Amino acid sequence: MSIKVSNISKSYSDQKALQSVSFEVNQGEIVGFLGPNGAGKSTMMKVLTTYLNPSEGTALVNGFDTQSHPTDVKKSIGYLPEHNPLYTEMYIREYLKFNASIYKVANSRIEEVIKLTGLTPEANKKIGQLSKGYRQRVGLACALLHNPSVLILDEPTTGLDPNQLIEIRELIKSIGKEKTVFLSTHIMQEVEAMCDRVIIIHKGKIVADKYLTEIDDQTEQIIEVEFDYRIEEAFLSKLPNVSHVKNIHDFSYQITFDTNKDMRPIVFDFAHDNQLKILQLSRKNKNLESLFIELTSTTG
Length: 300
Ligand code: ADP
Ligand code: MG
Fold this sequence. Notes:
This protein is an alpha/beta fold.
């Protein structure tokens, strides 16, 4: 187990940022920590990186407790903070050297991380001359200096243009082959692009923890259909594999089926056989998007 978080709560005066958060991250996984702005992602990451002490609960990284063994935790993790502070007047090598001296890392490792993060073509530039994408690479290079086994990346792709986005995703995925990666984002496409698993946080509470393959394999299928006049819900329940029928407005119904099989042709045939006219029909599979919206649009 790379990360084990048990019942962590954290309040800023009367603002509850985390409420009894528990989850685990296994070695070698790339896990996305997904939630809207203000959900508590950065707070959780600051607890994991020992920069904040929780109000309650425990967090272990590689078996080390963040509160009783912060030095061992820091050795185990590489951290890319949300607003990665960089010295814009420094040259890339100079900056990495400066950080390497803090961590007592050999100079040869600087060249290794430059290569690893694809910084070679820009390596002689000042940080201030770099694009946001390359600045993120410098942040990643810095996080990798002491060769940690766990990477904690807070919104690593936010603010990147589409090309930079693709490059940084690829870089994170390739780093993820060797290391455990726990990354936060408020954009679910980032999770789909990079992660094995998603942990969704909303208002300081974990509301989902799933492997992406589990979400893809979900059998629930929702069809929204509009007829030309009102029909009894019970009548539509006669369709095969129906688990739920709901009249959403006027003559529109949401029919939930418990099957992977595309039910649209069956709904059409059913309508035809019963002299019903379909004005509109759409199929909505449960996916990460619908799950995220469902779980984070609730109040309370
Ligand atoms: P996220 O990273 O998911 O956007 P944060 O962990 O930054 O969320 O914040 C969670 C909640 O805690 C928010 O409501 C935020 O306003 C509040 N918060 C974060 N940091 C502080 C702080 N230093 N002082 C007071 N409130 C804070
Ligand atoms: Mg944040």
